[in-house]
Specification:
alpha+beta, about 25% strand
Length: about 150
């Protein structure tokens, strides 16, 4: 997937997000560069194959969102690594139609296919829709929601 397309979709999703860290990125002097930096950040801490980062496409061929699964380095257990959904988002006009479930399921399947021992997800404590999506596809909540400084 082209970097420019990915950055553009991520920027559009973040512009409508209630997540404080997303809002900071989108309100930066140069939001495009801020999101590009975010997507390229911490590559020493995780790895992925380019085709893991996917767009969600509806029946009309429109991009509806994205999912960015990665594998963290240094979190191995019994020779298998830990995966996470680094980021996921659905464009505002497509929310409420199950696309988050589809994207989350696809990102999870991608990580399972490469043999991770666990897929870890987190979200902003106030993002009830994403928490519900995690639960709908079978994720378990292991910790109480809490605010953490970013």
């Amino acid at each position: 997937m082209g970097d420019n397309s990915l950055i553009s979709v991520v920027m559009r999703v973040m512009a409508s997000s209630t997540d404080a860290s997303h809002q900071r990125k989108i309100s930066a002097t140069s939001p495009y560069q801020e999101i590009e930096k975010y997507l390229n950040l911490d590559k020493d801490d995780f790895w992925y194959q380019d085709d893991w980062w996917q767009f969600g496409i509806n029946q009309n061929g429109d991009i509806v969102g994205f999912v960015l699964p990665v594998i963290f380095t240094g979190c191995a257990k019994d020779g298998k690594e830990e995966g996470t959904i680094y980021d996921i988002g659905v464009l505002p006009q497509y929310r409420g139609h199950g696309f988050a479930n589809d994207l989350l399921s696809q990102g999870t399947r991608t990580l399972q296919e490469v043999g991770v021992w666990r897929v870890f997800c987190d979200t902003w404590v106030g993002n009830e829709r994403m928490i519900s999506a995690f639960k709908r596809i079978g994720y378990q909540q292991y910790a109480e929601p809490r605010e953490c400084p970013v």
